[in-house]
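Sample A.
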Amino acid sequence: MKRDIIILGIESSCDDTSAAISKNGNILANLVANQDVHSSYGGVVPELASRAHQQNILPVVDQAIKIANIEKGQIDAVAFTRGPGLLGSLLVGTSFSKAMAMGLDIPLIEVNHMQAHVMSHFILNKDIEVPGFPFLCLTVSGGHTEIVLVKDYLKMEVVGRTIDDAVGEAFDKAAKILNLPYPGGPLIDKHARSGNAAAYNFPKPNIPDLDYSFSGLKTAFLYFIRDQVKDSPTFIDDHLADICASYQKSLIETVLDKFLRAIAEYKVGHIGIAGGVAANSYLRERVAQIGKEKTLQVSIPKLEFCTDNAAMIAITGHHKFQKELFTDQTIGAQARYQMINEEQ
C-alpha cells in the first residue's frame, strides 16, 4: 500500500499570502489573505506587501492546517515559491518555509511560480479534465505572458514569451488610465461584457516568432484616450463599456494569434490556460471556442486556482516530492527565476 504524501504549500510572490495542504494530489485546504492596503495607491507597494506577508503568514498557515484536519507532524515536506516575484515578499515566504522545514525536520521544496501556474491543471478535480502530454499552456499574468510546451509534469519548455510588458500589466495600466480602481483588469472584463468590442480599433503588434510585445498597444491606448478626452471631457464615462470591450478584444486576440500559431506548429491535441488573466471571461470563452473548432481537448483551471494561490505550489511540491527534488537550507529567494526542466 502506498503511503500518503502530505505537502504544505506556501505562496508569497506578490501581495497575496497563501497556504495550502495537498494529500496525494487532492487539495484539502487553500487559503488566501489579500492585501487591501494597495488599492489606494493604484498598484502593489513592495514594502507594504512584505510587511503584510509577515503579519499574515503564520495565521494563514495555521488555519490551513486546521481546515485540512491534520497535525503538523503529518506534513511530509514544505513547498514554497522561490520566485519570480517581489523580492521582499518572496523573502518572507522563503524564510518561513525554511524555518518550518527545519523545525519539523522534513524536506524543503523550491517552486517556480510560473511552473506552478501550469501545474494548477493537475490539481485533482472531478469537474475538470487533467491534460494529457504533451500539451500547450498559455500562461498569462500581471508579470508574465508565456506559451509553454508541457512534455511532462516537470518537463516544460517556454516556446514564446513577452519581450517587454505582460498582458496583465497592459490590462491594469489601461484601467488606471480609465480611472478604474486597482486591480483594474477584472473591472475591464466586467465593463466589457456590456460593450461593443468592434467600437474602436487598436493596432496589433507585429513581433516575430511566438514572442509578444504589449508596450506599443499600451501606448496606443494612452494616446487614443488622451485625444478623445481632449475633444470630449466625458468620453470615458460616456463610452466606458465599449472602450473596455474593444481594448480587451485587442489584447486577448493578440495573445491568441500566437497561441494558434503554436498549436499549428507543435500539433498538440490538448491545450490549456493558466495565470491570473486566465480568469478573464473573454479569454476563457475564446479558448473553449478554439478547442471546439479545432477538436482539441481544453483544460481551464477553476477560478480560485488561476490567481496566485498556494494550491498550485502544493501540487507542484507533490510531484517534486515523488522524484525527491529537494533543496537545502542555503536556498534564497530569487526575484527573477527562469523556468527550467527538472524532470529526471
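Sample B, a different protein:
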Amino acid sequence: MKIAGVQMDVSLGQVRENLDKMIERLRETRSEGAEITIFPECALTGYCFDSLAEARQYAEQIPGPSVQAMIEACAELGGMAIFGMLEPTGDENVFNAAVMVNGEGILGTYRKVHLPFLGVDQWSTFGDRPFDVVDTGDIKVGLNICYDSAFPESSRELTLCGADLIALPTNWPPGAEHVAAHAINTRAMENGIYYAAVNRVGHERGYDFIGGSRICGVAGETLAVADHRDETILYAEIDPAAARKKRVERIPGKHSIDRLADRRPEFYGKLVEPHNLPKPGRES
C-alpha cells in the first residue's frame, strides 16, 4: 500500500482556499497511486488564532460542508484522506480534530488529547474520547495530532488497539526539530508500526513552521523525509502485515524480541495515576 504525506502551507481562516488546495494535492497523490493521503494539523483552518471567539468562526461540525467536500473528492478520485480541522463543541468551545474519510463517508475522527499552550490549543477543549483505530479492512489506522507524539503512551495505546499505521497531522514550530528528527522513528520502532508525521510549512502570526515531515517503518527506519521547509509530498510503500508481526527473530533460537509480549504492565502503575499539577495558562 502506498501512502502520501502532503507538507503544505495553510492560510489562516481561509477554509475554502485551503480545502481547494487539499483537493488538488489529493488529485496529485491519487495519480501517483497513494491509497491514503495525510494532510497537516488544522490544514482546513490554520492554527494561530488569537482567541476562542476567532477560532470558533472557522470550526465546522463533523460531518459538515468541508468534510462532505472531501468525501466527494474521494468518491471522484478514490482513496482515503486524513486532515486536521476545528470541531465545535456543544458549549461554545472547540476541539482540535482530525478526520479520516473515503468516498463513502467518514471512517473515523479524533479529538486531540494532549494540548500545548500554543496557537489554537490555548483555547481548545481537551479531547474526550478514548484512543481507537480505524479499520478499513486492509489496514488499521490510529489517529494522533502533533503534541500527542511527545507522549509514548498515545502510540502504545493505539498499538494495543491494533494500529498498523499511526497518522500524525502536525504543526511543528521552531523548538520541535528534535521531535521531527528522532521521536517519530522512536514511536515506530518501540511499537513495531508505521508512523507518518505530516507537518505544515509557512509563516502565521509570528510563527514559522519547520516542515520535517517523515514516514517511518516498523523497525524505526526512515522511509521518506522532507528535511526542509518547502511544500512537498512524501510517498512510502507500507505493508500492514509487517506491523502485525511483533516478534522479531534476530538469531533463530538465540535472540528474539517482542516489545508487546515482553511488557511488564504490573510495574507501570505510576503511568496511570492522576496528577494535580496545574497546566500553564489553564485551570488545573
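Observation for Sample B: The radius of gyration is 18 Å.
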